[in-house]
Write a structure and sequence with these properties.
Order of helices and strands: HEEEEEEEEH
Structural class: alpha+beta
Largest sheet: 8 strands, mixed
Number of helices: 2
Distance between the termini: 53 Å
Radius of gyration: 18 Å
Length: 136
């Protein structure tokens, strides 16, 4: 019995070492111009890729801004798209520290920036906006 518990703990520990991956970013209403960069149970936030512009770029940081939208879910498959109503909600700013590579995001309704972790929806959205402005 002791060996079973020992093996179970080892298995759980090893599973914790496996990095979680973001399979793919979801899009609002199936439109590739509106990636969902933050999501919850009943809604999320999408950005307008065509509006992405570099607002600041120097040796220390790069800031990319885009129009932000609130998306209230009405349906979808939960894997590649979510249907719903897009409501304008100010701007979203993606900031990357050029020296460390760390990045964070802040949107108009947020009170403080959120650190972007690898393999997250925010990380996927950052890659998309960088590509949109030619900074891949």
């Amino acid at each position: 019995m002791r060996n079973i518990h020992h093996c179970l703990w080892i298995a759980v520990f090893l599973l914790c070492l496996v990095p979680q991956t973001c399979f793919a970013i979801m899009y609002a209403n199936g439109d590739a111009n509106y990636p969902i960069w933050n999501t919850g149970n009943r809604g999320g936030s999408a950005l307008d890729l065509s509006s992405a512009v570099i607002t600041e770029e120097n040796d220390y940081e790069m800031v990319i801004c885009a129009f932000n939208y609130t998306l209230t879910y009405t349906g979808g498959d939960g894997r590649t798209y979510e249907n719903g109503t897009l409501e304008p909600n100010g701007y979203v700013y993606f900031t990357t520290n050029c020296r460390t590579g760390k990045a964070w995001v802040i949107a108009t309704p947020m009170h403080q920036p959120m650190t972007i972790i690898p393999n997250s929806a925010e990380s996927e959205a950052l890659d998309l906006v960088k590509s949109q402005v030619g900074k891949t």
